[in-house]
Design a protein that fits this description.
CATH architecture: Alpha-Beta Barrel
Bound molecules: cytidine-5'-monophosphate
CATH superfamily: Aldolase class I
Order of helices and strands: HEHEHEHEHEHHEHEHEHH
Oligomer: single chain
Radius of gyration: 17 Å
Length: about 240
């Protein structure tokens, strides 16, 4: 009983967005690979490349390579296969790339069988709200786009989706429970939202049963990242 409760709890993915390796290593060398997964995104991947991914994995951490692929199906399929060759744990791509792109990505990693990385589709970025979508002439609500893109992601065999925390309960109600739910934009009420527009608190993330929360700047931009990180882990 206790074990399965632990298994289903909300887990942390630390967004390791730094401009230098030493800041990243300071954190990695002082935490346990069981404590959290590590997200390597555009900033560190562009600066330090696959060698840095390898370094983090060699320290024992599972890596979420968050490059959010969005291109023609053939290009995305090859990018996903190249990412999987690095041995990463999770890979992201944009659901808005459409069914053919998502299926091509899925097919590209079929050869890895049970060692396939987890493929997750980004629905609508947490930095968007209804107004920023309507500025692009997308005149439906975030809610309807997220739901539609989640359905497409599920139908194309994605393992999970990235979505604003505010949409999680609606997705569970309408699409079911078998997609892994990954949510960035986690903020305490008194912390700056930065560029995030759809935010929820850690407490809400747990209540909603989100599988993985992604947290970056509240930890990485703090003067004492380890203290903040440990506080968050304690609350999960
Ligand atoms: O710093 P912060 O906690 O806002 O970190 C959010 C991280 O999650 C960033 O690395 C960002 O790239 C990523 N992310 C996001 N929104 C998504 C998907 C990923 O903010 N929909």
């Amino acid at each position: 009983m206790l074990k399965s409760k632990k298994k289903n709890r909300t887990k942390l993915i630390l967004a390791l967005d730094y401009k230098n390796i030493s800041s990243a290593l300071y954190i990695l060398n002082n935490i346990n690979p069981q404590d959290c997964k590590i997200k390597i995104g555009l900033e560190m991947f562009i600066r330090f490349g696959p060698k840095f991914v390898q370094k983090v994995q060699n320290l024992g951490f599972d890596v979420f390579l968050d490059l959010k692929f969005f291109d023609i199906p053939n290009t995305v399929a090859k990018a996903v296969k190249s990412s999987a060759d690095l041995g990463v744990w999770m890979i992201s791509l944009h659901a808005i790339g459409g069914e053919i792109m998502l299926q091509a990505a899925k097919n590209a990693i079929e050869i890895f069988k049970k060692d396939s990385p987890i493929l997750i589709a980004v629905t609508i970025l947490t930095s968007f709200n209804d107004k920023s979508l309507s500025n692009l002439n997308f005149n439906n609500s975030i809610r309807s786009y997220v739901l539609n893109l989640s359905r497409i992601a599920k139908d194309c065999g994605m393992d999970g989706i990235v979505c604003p925390g505010t949409e999680v309960l609606n997705i569970k109600k309408n699409i079911g429970l078998d997609l892994k739910l990954i949510t960035p934009g986690i903020r305490t009420p008194n912390y700056t939202k930065d560029d995030q527009k759809q935010t929820i608190t850690l407490k809400q993330a747990k209540e909603y049963g989100i599988n993985y929360i992604v947290i970056g700047r509240p930890i990485t931009a703090s003067t004492n990242p380890l203290t903040i990180l440990r506080k968050i882990l304690k609350k999960l």
